[in-house]
Design goal:
This protein is of the alpha+beta class. The chain has two helices and four strands, in the order βαββαβ.
């Protein structure tokens, strides 16, 4: 896995729990519609992204 690898949120799987944007606020945000969104993949630590992916209750965060 290389630095700068892109990731996204599958909105159909997102539960809107907020864990991703609480842990990585520079890369995720609340949409205000019970889902989260990726605001930027730039500079995201891939190890940290993997950790957030593993703890996501909906398994909604995916690599592109």
């Amino acid at each position: 896995m290389s630095a700068g690898r892109a990731f996204y949120i599958d909105e159909d799987l997102c539960t809107g729990c907020g864990d991703c944007y609480k842990v990585m606020p520079n890369h995720f945000a609340d949409t205000g519609e019970e889902t989260a969104e990726v605001t930027s993949c730039n500079g995201a630590d891939p190890v940290r992204v993997e950790e957030v992916m593993k703890t996501c209750p909906g398994k909604a965060i995916k690599w592109k």
